[in-house]
Amino acid sequence: MIAVVVLIVVAATAGTLGATMLSRAGWVRRAPVIGLVVWQSVSVTILASVLLAAALVALPPPVFSAASGWLGTCLGLLEGHYAAPFGWIGRVTGAVIGCVVLARAVGCTMLEARAAGVARRVTRGRLALLAAPRSDGVLLLEDDRPAAYCVPGRRPVVVLTTGAERLLRPEQRIAVLTHERAHLRARHHWAVLWASGLNRAFGFVPAFAHGAREVELLVEMHADDAAARASGRQSLAEALVRMASGPAPTATLAAHGADAVTRVRRLLGRPERLGAGARVALTGLAAALLLGPVLIGLLPAIESTLREHCAPYEHACDVPGRSDVALP
């Protein structure tokens, strides 16, 4: 059961200490795309570690026999690595925990998706009545308040209010619209949905609570970088300040949302980009986080397969708890 213990330790460490370190890391906001990947990898690692630990505890005895033949290893050695120490009570407990965790994660994410879908349908209905399409595909909404946002989904649209069109200079409007198109192109709403769903399901876990806020901010920073390349950091920063009080419907991604003050300071401060070596290392970290739980769960089976004999069990009758074996 070493694998189960290690998986639980990994989940607890990533959910607490890992989340704290990541939320304080300066490189995250210097490279928002990599930051998004690592945050998502941490959340997947926590969830996968808990589910795999529960699955390993819940494995019924017939699985060991089948796995032993498939792997070509000793049944006793395999059971010694994986068998639940508490018998059927441990297996039932593991199965219940795994099912509850999986059901809550899926259910809460689906509830978030449903709520977002309803809100976007309401927004699209309002836009159909009040907004007019421009030649560049942007919907121009009659509203004196300056705002710009995108409505993601199967029929994505970018919306600009008449107040923003009058208030912003041409280069500022280009920056804002580029920002919104970057959201749609990168499908940022999926990252936000996943983070908000896990936060709704397990908000008591620091990684999911911090992750929901950080992901929302990082998708905006990623879109900021795309807009800054098109129109300059100064133009986008000025546009964000001018639209600070603008409205943004629920379940949309607005240029002036998610801590605009922090984003303006970042744009004006011109943070140093991460080097190639740091990017490779952080990408490797994300891959290790994703593969780690699976490798931890499989390593005992791999080690059993590589053994040349059935140590510590030299004979079938020496297998603890086995009464269904007979002397040859």
From TrEMBL:
Keywords for this protein: Hydrolase, Membrane, Metal-binding, Metalloprotease, Protease, Transmembrane, Transmembrane helix, Zinc
Recorded superkingdom: Bacteria
One GO BP annotation of this record: proteolysis
Cofactor list: Zn(2+)
Cofactor, free-text remark: Binds 1 zinc ion per subunit.
Molecular function GO terms recorded: metal ion binding; metalloendopeptidase activity
UniProt-listed Gene3D superfamilies: Metalloproteases ('zincins'), catalytic domain
Residues spanning the membrane: 34-59, 280-302
Peptidase M48 domain sequence ranges: 137-207
Sequence similarity: Belongs to the peptidase M48 family.
Protein's name according to its UniProt entry: Peptidase M48-like protein
Organism: Nocardioides albertanoniae
